[in-house]
Amino acid sequence: MEGKLLREVVEDTGISRRAIQGYEKEGLVHATGKTKMGYLLYDDKSIERIKLIRMYQEIGFRVKDIGKIIDATDDMKKKVLRERLECLKLKRDKMEQLIIHVEQKIKEL
Description:
The chain is mainly α. Helices cover about 70% and strands about 5% of the residues. It has a three-stranded antiparallel β-sheet with strand order 1-3-2.
């Protein structure tokens, strides 16, 4: 069976062992095989799914919500991602205003 060990997936993706195990517990990803010694293996498709799950987390989705999104239709994913993009843009705009405000305060000091 071909694939990468969990340790290798952690090293390659920067996603913690604990996070990946959490994804498995939630049923979002599964190992695709085992070595003779019983170590779990992950194929490229599983690794890409792990990265996608992390991306959804980083943009603000909870793991429980990701389970509903990740296997949805492309149209549903587009809708959800467009909505999240708008939220992210609003947050960015607010952050830019805060940066300007802080820079002004620094100049005043």
